[in-house]
Every structure is written in structure tokens, then in C-alpha cells.
Here is the input.
Amino acid sequence: MPKSTKQNGTVYLVGGGPGDLGLVTLRAKECIENADVIVYDHLANPELLRWARDDAEIIYAGKEPGESRTQQEINTLLIDKAREGKQVVRLKGGDPFVFGRGAEEAEAIAEAGIPFEIVPGITSATAGPAYAGIPMTHRKHNSHVTFFTGHEDPAKQGNAVDYAALAKLGGTQVMLMGVERLGAITNEMLKQGVRADLPVALVRSATTGQQETLTGTLSDIAQKAVASDFKAPAVAVFGEVVALRHNLNWYEKRPLLGKRILVTRIRKQASVLSNKLRALGAHVIELPTIRIEPPSDLREFAELVQDAHVYDWIVFTSANGVEAFFDIFFKLYYDAREIGAVRIAAIGPATAQRVKDFHLHVDLQPDEFVAEAVVKEFEKQGSIENLRILLVRAEKTRDTLPKELSALGAIVDKAFAYRTVPETRDTSGARRQLAQDGADLITFTSSSTVENFLALGLPWPKGMRIASIGPITSKTARDHGLTVDVEARRHDIDGLAQAIREFFEKS
Ligand code: SAH
Here is the structure.
């Protein structure tokens, strides 16, 4: 058989951090962006997958009971994909070499002669205590830290954790896995002579909007965990430093902690609102309802872009239009001056900002996307009779702007820059999450987010409230039979986040 000439790809064992998207390394993000194949664990935050290429193959490796692939199957998968010449990212929660079998995967890959790279991540073992306000070390209290696994039953023969040694060692001890075995583990520690009133904390879903911390002592923590149905994944911290949380608890004081909020804007635009809500402690579920695609006739659009300099005005009606326009423009021209003496109008502050990002002046900026308002602004500039206007917009929009401008004597050409299509994929598992766990609130930032969300026909989670950015959006929601619970007083993203915060603080 002829030998394959295909070069092996590389396997990147990537630490995805403990949950908070801000705690992901730049290298991890870069690896995800470049990957042909991503094999991810259930502890890796699925929102990381938003950085994946659209054509990347995304494989869930499970590890939850019932849906897990065996370790052997995962190893084989990684090796096979790399042998096909693919760049493979093995995405794991926390740090790939802190428990969780990353080491075994690396060995199998090395054994198969596949090139690999390890991308360390922030482990839950350190991030969990930090986000619970527990410093792992403090000069007054301890001078060493131990990480151990609670995976095995301490009573079992051949158990790898030496509890007698741990008891003698003292210091801060952090346990991963094994919340379900906490009773047996704390009993064993007590038996080995650790004092019964040693402070202990359990931190679950650390660094996410669902973080919860339970504190107690070595003698009562297991019982407390059972009583409050405290579930995995959690890290347990044993040591004097746990008491410092009393003063240092910071993250769990955020006003929206534990609130599940749905953000429905398209991916690229969602992050500003999502980040604001996350900073307030919310658990944000980004559920894009539409996706931007190139226009049906890209050639025609490109020709209009090429001739942009012959117009008197270019009118941009959306940030997406600005991006699509300059994406083509700078493929055609090297010099920004090729745009000529054309003047630029941008409707709405976000659109204007996108134009300014390209270092171009906005000559006219009507605030509202209402044909009359735009026309009025144009009229202020003098007659628009016989002016040539290039209107850059999405396909299939129904507004009356071009008609009104033509009626005033302008010569209007429409340049279809992009089209929006319903988002049918669910790469980050947002729909699954919504169906399983519901949400407390949905945010609408424009009439189209209302319409697009409803068009998906998803079941409305029980008790999900509605926040709207302003009266126009609220009206659309009401026209569709929805009740608006929160309306921003200032009609921008900051105003919306502020209104949501006040709403939950009051309720
Ligand atoms: N490599 C991972 C750990 C894998 S073992 C890391 O470095 O974080 C899985 C265990 O990690 C879980 O049982 C739990 O103890 C812990 N864990 C992972 N993510 C967690 C989180 N967000 N909050 C609390 N514990 C977490």
C-alpha cells in the first residue's frame, strides 16, 4: 500500500479555565480559533466554542454518566483525527494536567508519535477558592498547599490518598472531585486526628454565574452538603484560610449572581451586553437567533462598492452593513482615499461608531431609523434633488427610506451588503440549556431580536421575564402578546444592564 504523504496534524491539549470566559488564556483562544476539530469535555465552558471556526468539527466527549465515551475511545479519536492531518484541540476544564486524565491523553498521543502542545489553564483548584474569597496561602496561617483527589473511597483497598500523611501535613488542602464521598472522606480525616472544628468550604460551579459556597467545619460539612443537596462540580477547601472568606468574599456579592439571563443578539454583537451582565454576576446564555451571511449577489455588491466614489452620499443603516462594505472595499483598494469625496450618513449610534472605527468622518447621523427622520436630516443639508445616494443595507428589508429619498428627487442605488438567516446551529448548547434549566430573564435589544426569537418557536421557559431596551422594542414585544417587565430608561446597552440590575434588586 502506498504510504500516506499526508502530514500528521497536531493535538493541542488545551485548558479552558474554570468557567469564567475572562479566565481563558490568549493561547487557548488562539488554538480554538485555528482548530479543525475540537473535542470538548462537559466541564469546559461550551461558550468557548463561539471562537471556533464555522466549519470546525465539534465533538462532545461527554463524561457525564450515560453519554461518556471511554478514555480509550477519546484517545483513539484524537489520534485518528491528527493522522488525517487535522489540527485537533482537546478542550478540557481548568488545567489539562490537573486531574481529569489529561496526562493519560498526552501519553497516548506521544506514544502514537503525534506532535502535541500543552496549553495550561487556570485550574478550578485555585480559581474556586479565589472566587470564594479564600486565599490559598496566608503568611499567618500556612506555608504549603496540597491538591488531592476525592475520587476514590478512602475505605477502599489500595486507595492512593494517604490520609494519615495529609493529617500530619496540615496547611491548606484542596480536594477536587468526590463531593458525593465527602462523608467518608471527612470521617477518615477525623480518624487520622485532624481537629473537628477545622474550617471547610465547598465551592460549586466556581467562577460562573451559578457559583455557590457552603462553609462549615470538618465535623459538619458533609451533613450540611447532604442537607442542602450540594452538587458537583465543586472544590473543597480544608484549612484555617477558609475563615478569611468572612472578610474577603467578593464575587458572590454581585447583584445578579445566580440569575440566568438570555441574550439574543447575533454573536458578534452580543458580547458587550453579555460581558456587562456577567460582570454583575449573571449567568448569561447567549442564544443567537440569526446569522449574517454574504449577500446572494456578492458580485453586484462588490461592483457598487468599487464605484462608491462616484456617489454624493453613502448611507449606512447598520453596523453589519459598514463591516460588509469595508471588508470588500479594502480588498479592492489599498488606499482609503479611493472613497473619494463622497459624504457618509450613518443611522444610529452603533452604525456611526463602526464608520468611525475605520477613521472616516460621519457627515450626517440621524438617530432613528425612521424614514421621516432621515429625510428631514437630509433636507437640512439643502436640496437632495439629483444627488446620487448609495444605500448600503441588508437584503429583504421593508423600510420606505429609498422611496422617500427618490420622491425628493434623489437617485438612489441599493447595495445589498448581507443577508440575515435564522441561526439553526447550537454549538454552545444554549438551546439545550434553556430547555433543561430555563432562564429568569430574556433581553431584547431591538424589534428584530423579538421577532427573530419568536420565529425560532422555542418553548417559553416558565417564569422567564422580559427586559427591553426601549419603547419601540417594547411595543413590538407587546404586539406579539408578550408582557414587558423591564424597560431601560436610557436606550442603550448600559441603560439596559442598569435597568435589569435595579429590577432584580427590587424583586
Ligand atoms: N482539570 C480540571 C479538573 C478536572 S477533575 C481543573 O483543573 O479544574 C474535575 C473536578 O474539578 C470536579 O469534580 C470538581 O472538583 C473540579 N471542578 C472543575 N470545574 C469546577 C468549577 N467550575 N467549580 C468547582 N469545581 C470544579
Summary: The pocket of S-adenosyl-L-homocysteine is lined by residues 18-19, 43, 92-95, 98-100, 123-125, 128, 176-177, 203-207, 232-235 (CB under 6 Å). Residues 319-332 form the longest helix (14 residues).
